[in-house]
Amino acid sequence: MWTWLHKLGSPKIFYNLANRLIPWFGWGALLLMLYGLYGGLVQAPADYQQGDSFRIMYIHVPAAWMSLFIYMVIAFCSAVYLIWKITLADIIARASAPIGASFTFLALVTGSLWGKPMWGTYWIWDARLTSELLLLFIYLGYMGLGSAIEDRRVAARACALLAIVCVVIIPIIHYSVTWWNTLHQGSSVSVMNQSSIDKSMLVPLLVMAFAFKFYYVAVVLVRARTDLLFQERKTNWVRKVLVNG
Amino acid sequence: MGEFFHMGGYAFYVWLSYGVAAVVLIANVFIPLVRDRQVKRELAMKMVRDNELNQESIS
Hints:
The complex is a heterodimer of chains A (about 240) and B (about 60). Chain A is an all-alpha fold and about 240 residues long. Chain A contains 9 helices and no strands. Chain A has one domain (about 15-245): Four Helix Bundle (Hemerythrin (Met), subunit A) (Up-down Bundle). Chain A has helices at about 1-10, 10-45, 55-85, 85-120, 125-150, 150-165, 170-180, 200-230, 235-245. The two termini of chain A are about 35 Å apart. The mean pLDDT of chain A is about 90. With about 60 residues, chain B is mainly α. Chain B has a domain at about 25-60. Chain B has helices spanning about 1-5, 10-59. The radius of gyration of chain B is 24 Å and the shape is rod-shaped. The interface between A and B is medium-sized, with 36 and 26 residues.
């Protein structure tokens, strides 16, 4: 197990593995997305209260889940980086940030477009919305900090510390709908209990959630692969990669 | 078909949501791919230049 992990930490082996995994996750994401969109936009019936506007959910909810999930990946990789000084952990953490920021942005925009017809407003300073907006600023601050510091190691340490400190936002966002009296509804999907949403609506939602996960893995591997080449540019294996195209 | 695009009167909100999502997701695929190509090209060019410099200093 440990030797296996150690090998995975080797840049060259990771690079080759990423090359092989990217097409699987990329095309997998596309297929799942097409299936999820068909289920969500065509097959699922209109909601008895919200009509067809509920179909925004198939972007909004998985995007919001991803915004939290990717942040937790960043925080986890940051901890790994600070403890074991594995450069790869820093590369993955920082390659994840733009994708996480994109999903946070999507969750906010689609939520806003859903809020207008249902709540009568694009925006309200509700606990869930405000904390999610804060997460977007954390992502942007994290990316800004990374690009503002030139020395790669100093930047990596600073970013890792920031990511770990700001991880408190995650439980705040998650429990905001229970802790405060929010306009935003509570969760309709539950792992422990019966979900309060019909199967015909739930299945496309879960498919879209998996599609976004696959998408994230594919894109983060592409980003990490490029960063890895650049960081290891003086090594022999990178020279071989460049020669062989 | 027209009913599908009409989205029960919520067409603007639904399709704008999906449109923004499509733009953001596609951009997130293309930007890293373009950057990957750029970085590879720059590194390859630098490698060629360094090799030439090395050979000049040897001869």
